[in-house]
Specification:
Layout lengths: L7 E2 L5 H10 L5 H11 L14 H10 E2 L4 E7 L5 E6 L5 E8 L4 E4 L3 E2 L17 E2 L2 H18 L6 E4 L9 H12 L11 E5 L3 H9 L5 E5 L5 H7 L2 H4 L2 H15 L3 E5 L9 H11 L4 E6 L14 H13 L4 E4 L18
Parallel strand pairs: 1-2, 6-9, 9-10, 10-11, 11-12, 12-13, 13-14
Antiparallel strand pairs: 3-4, 4-5, 5-6, 7-8
Length: about 350
Amino acid sequence: MFFMEKKKDIRALSKAELRAFFVTHGDKAFRGDQVYEWLWQKGAHSFDDMTNISKQTRAMLNTNFVINHIKVDQMQRSNDGTIKNAIKLHDGLVVESVLIPTETRSTACVSSQVGCSLDCNFCATARLKRMRNLNPDEIYDQVVAIDQQSRYYQNHKLSNIVFMGMGEPLLNYNNVLKAIDKITSDEGLAMSPKRITLSTVGLPKMIKKLADDEVKFNLAVSLHSAIDEVRSKMMPINEKSNLAELLEALQYWYAKTKKRVTFEYVVWKSINDKKKDAEALAAYCKKIPSKVNLIEYNAIDDGEFQQADSKAVDLYVRTLEAHHIPVTIRRSRGKDIDAACGQLANKN
């Protein structure tokens, strides 16, 4: 007999488990398929939304389960059209997600953890303690909410997803991959994995696991220096997994997936703005098929890190192009509402 001491979040069940639940309760197995479709494809927030299911069956579901759906608790719109969401979770904790629109595409920047434990000195999220991992459905719900906003405000559906919000995705490995599986599934949002990018500080063991698991999405690494001494001062994780270990993992990734890596890189004044820094990055990139996104820095109030001047950024561009390494300068969006890279910190 199927029995629960307390209500369980129904979205923690697989389709097979849902089908078994209904058979155990004297119903047809296909009822589980119907409920599954309501939960994932139609984004039902309550059992009462499931209009092709009888009231008696909905009442039975209410007795046994809950749907721990996220709530967009606060929404801010930037002058450039960027939207930042304060997402309230079922236990009252809050994360942030961002819609980054252009004329032709909309990108969802989603969070994977409440807070972060990696202490990168330049990132506002790192100043929040890590409270917990997000569940797969909580990650999925962020994408659904941003897709709805894109359709409403931009008149087109979501086109891309980046895991560049709060938290380190590879420290919530299983839940992030389950969420991506659901996002890319025909039974979910049916998005192409080629339109999804996971961003990490660079955890060699987990990057190799991604390769072994034959994931189809893209990989970005928050690098910011190709000199160990410099990177370690900004990113303490580099003391545990240095650039050589990271490179070896990325070479393994490429050998397995044939997907080149994107290096995310901020040039800071008096930190990594010299010719030797640019040349070190070029030398590092030549060892692994890659491209570089030079990212505009977004201040987090204390002044320790300052955006380098344009001459330093141009030096990087010239150096990388001289070595035939693809490079793009990425301008930040949503700075006026603290929605840009490195600024997500639940200020509100």
